[in-house]
UniProtKB/TrEMBL annotation:
One of its GO terms (molecular function) is hydro-lyase activity. Belongs to the FldB/FldC dehydratase alpha/beta subunit family. This is 3-hydroxyacyl-ACP dehydratase. Pfam families: HGD-D. It comes from Candidatus Aquicultor primus. The lineage of its organism: Bacteria, Bacillati, Actinomycetota, Candidatus Aquicultoria, Candidatus Aquicultorales.
Amino acid sequence: MSEDYRKMWEELGLDLEAHDQLLAVIPQMYGDIYMSQQNRPEGMAYLDFVMSEIHGLRVKELNDLREAGGKVVGAFCLYVPEEVVLAGGAACVGICGGADWGTAEAEKVLPRNLCPLIKSFIGFKLTKVCPYFESSDMIVGETTCDGKKKSYEVLGEYTNVHVMHTPQTKDDASRKLWLEEVKKFKATMEELTGNTIDAAALAQGVATVNAKRAALKRMNEARKASPVPISGKDALLIEQVAFYDDPVRFTQMINKVSDELEQRIADGVGVAPADAPRILISGCPMAIPNWKMHHIVESTGAIIVGEEACIGHRYFRDMVDESPSDLEGELTAVADRYMKLDCACFTPNKERLDNIMQLVEDYKVDGVIHYALQFCDPFTVEYNSVERTLKYAGVPVLKIETDYSMEDAGQLSTRVEAFMEQIKETQGAIV
Ligand code: BJ8
């Protein structure tokens, strides 16, 4: 860290000793996984800087906002409408849930056989090592999977939680229910911030988030090229940082990265040979600092060209319609955009299968790795239909179920290497 932030962390109530231990682990891991890559785009220096200041500069910015009377809202799910948070003059941050830190503490209040993402965020709260958690004036939960739904009751014993009731299906009754939830959330934001959210404020919130999603979309477009100008690891990092960086600055910086990627495409520059297997990762979100699968896959010489996940395409695929000019129309447009999400918590969820096939076609994918976190019922159950769809189309698919520990890394590498062999054989048969 370029400044001494200890006073700020202490004032936030962090457990400084435990926090020091956490901060000692991340740079080592980041160095091994990220800085060892060759021929990275120069624009990734911004992301390296963000990571070097992960608990420093951005937390300070949030702190400054709070000292000036602003509010910070933390979230764990794509259903939380960031547009409404920004319209209230607050900052929206995605809280980390990508490391098995504090799992032992979490297991004192949660069952052991629960998804690691949920145990991670409860563990971060209980061990007081996440400055984003401690900077949040309100956490927004949602009734997606059962594990999350019930865990927000537990989290509510420790902090201020607002829960949004997310629909499970996409009929008209669910759309109405969801629009009401968005309106209720707007009222909660107004109460939290003391600001009225009018049509102009919401239009600004929508424009800011749409611009961020457009920048991510543009960066991902570059991954269609052959050779691919950016590694999957770097693209994943950009998608992860999107959840907590300042949205306007992030948009500018990622558009600069895209300028460079487009130049690389024009010059035929890539980070892997043109014949490297092109892999799509599909499934559960990979929250920072979960880089495990990307590292394992790209260490075999393959290149990841997309993430069919919430930290990935599901986040930036759909925009909010900016044409309505009255508040009711804008709120409806926001609600409609979120109803397009194809999370495995929906039933039925045929859209996800269609979207996976579209990505396979658009990104010329050679094989799909379906990534599910252990004990995640929605994604592990939905795997069957994903597999059937892909196999029917002749696309090789590998099912991975794992957690955040590195204990199975060796075994996963072996399985991924065998999968790459299978892909090469399939390609050989086609040629
Ligand atoms: S919109 S994918 S972010 S719910 S991995 S906690 S589903 S048991 S993360 Fe998700 Fe929102 Fe859906 Fe996206 Fe439960 Fe599964 Fe754990 Fe999960």
